[in-house]
From TrEMBL:
Family per record: Belongs to the pyridoxal phosphate-binding protein YggS/PROSC family.
Species of origin: Rhizobium halophytocola
The keyword ATP-binding belongs to this UniProt entry's keyword annotation: no
Protein name: Pyridoxal phosphate homeostasis protein
Sites of N6-(pyridoxal phosphate)lysine modification: K35
Amino acid sequence: MTVEERLADIRQRISKAEQDAGRAAGAVTLVAVSKTFDADAIRPVIAMGQRIFGENRVQEAQGKWPDLRAETPDLELHLIGPLQSNKASDAVALFDVIETVDREKIARALAAEAERQARRLRFYVQVNIGLEPQKAGISPSDTRDFVAFCRQDLKLDVEGLMCIPPADENPGPYFALLAKLAAASGVERLSMGMSGDFDTAIAFGATSVRVGSAIFGAR
Ligand SMILES: *Cc1c(COP(=O)(O)O)cnc(C)c1O
């Protein structure tokens, strides 16, 4: 299949999952994850009308998105990978949405940079939903307080929660837990679901899915 066929297929599967879950058409936003793919691989996806993209490395994103943005001004870029404090300035300058606010130190650095650059970004708090030692994220039990801290003390526009469930396990219960934490924290949006499990995530209330290899091919 071509990248165009794969994208069309993903769009159809998202529509079907919305319908099956009794959710409104268009309730779920597709974030096309273009990490490791260069600008020439991304252009056909932009040409098909996709406007929202995810990248996991600041430096890699800096190498391709300024040109793509100059060609297509209404793109929206999400950072979906871990962020070091010394990259906060570059991240705030380049991205529109940062989905990986996973500790107090980075939240403070992002708030300071957003103010310094007079940039209005949107943020997600990343939750370590399976309490895995190798994964980043706020623990489920700390999520509500951390969201309140980011909003009230740092004035960050936290619009949702993001998670990556443990690999090789049924993701459903983890998606359900993230939805519960979002309701308890007073946030509306849920970034959950990737190529292998986005249909399930939509059934559990995902408002955006982050799909990479199913669109762009294997990395
Ligand atoms: C790479 C990545 C994705 C996309 O993964 P695929 O399995 O290729 O769809 C989604 N979310 C995060 C955080 C990622 O790093």
